[in-house]
Amino acid sequence: MRTLTYAQAIREAFAQLLKTDPRVFVIGQGVRSPWYAGTSLKDLDKDFGRDRIIDSPVSENATTGAAVGAALAGMRPIVFHSRMDFMLLAVDPIVNQAANWSHIFAGQVGVPIVIRAVINRGGEQGAQHSQALQAMFAHIPGVKVIMPATPYDAKGLLIAAVKDGNPVMYIDDRWLYEERGEVPEAMYEVPIGVAAIRRRGADVSIVATSFMVVEALKAASILTHRQIDAEVIDLRSISPWDHETVFNSVRKTGCLIVVDAAWKTCGVAAEISAGVAEGAFAALKAPVARVCLPDVPAPSSASLERAYYIGAEDIAASAEQVFLQKREKEFLVTSLLNEGNAEGKGRSIESSPRKSMTGAAGL
Asked: C-alpha 165: how far from its chain's center?
């Protein structure tokens, strides 16, 4: 099968959606600029016209509000926010309007809008241009939040989001844009809310989101040299998220490491950890570990960025620590059981003569 980069896969999904559904249009800042979108929207305006690829004024609130209105009128808009940070200016149309509309009207009216938000970190861009805010929007009922990690999913989840009929936030990380993978030419959908097991393993479960899936797979390779067999789960969707795939993995390995390239407090990793504590606590043989960003804004210098952002080595170190805790617990339990069995056998031997004597006296 042919391969595409992550950005090319997004671009192909846009092109196929625009070609097959006249209701689809794209609106946002910089939709015709590689500075904003890389190659993920390249030349779409030339192929489909600027009335369907609309480069909007610098007003995130107005642009998103207009798209919500278009969705209510029967269109299928895709709103492009080149930086997730500035999408905060559009919270009202996303949270107060799009997310609530179907509920307010008892499901009679939906808002089939896709909000594409780009995480654009690194490069000494500083705190106001480097934020990953997925947990904030995953908290909102009525909005589905997806984070594809592979070119295959980048295309399939975007198509699924447009066809879903509900507000869907599609979050992509620019650090993924050059990742390459197999992508079918035909249109296809990847189901929202279903995780993918990227690597099967028996010792520890690593659950990751977006670009952290790439780093988790690298960490799994590192762990093999330490005789630790890691299972890697790509969450793909964080609202809703796939409880059963995660639970089943934890039941197999007894260990959980959750990796999310966002702040630790009240984040996606906290939600997954709490879900496992509620649904699969008995399977845990060690405390859950979270590998996330420190709870401080992103730095602006390259040297500080190297210390701030997490990667494969951080994940591997955390997984190894959890695995050793599991081994210590298993050793302790085995030792206690062996001691109990030895004591039980000793009591049995001691009691046998007494029973014989009692029996003899009775005779």
From this structure: 21
**Residues 16 and 137 occupy one common structural domain:** yes
The reply to whether 202 and 319 lie within a common domain is: yes
Active site residues: 60, 129
Predicted pLDDT of residue 180: 97
Task: Express each pLDDT in 324-336 by its tens digit.
Answer: 999 888 888 777 7
Answer yes or no: pTM beyond 0.85: yes
Report the domain count for the chain: 2
Asked if 132 contacts 83 with a C-beta cutoff of 8 angstroms, the reply is no
Burial status of residue 325 (CB atoms within 10 A of its CB: 0-12, 13-18, 19 or more): middle
Contact 124, 81 (CB under 8 A): no
pLDDT tens digits for 12-65? 999 999 999 999 999 999 888 777 788 899 999 999 999 999 999 899 999 999
Q: What is the 3-state secondary structure (H, E, C) of 50-101?
A: CCCEEECCCCHHHHHHHHHHHHHCCCEEEEEECCHHHHHHHHHHHHHHHHHH
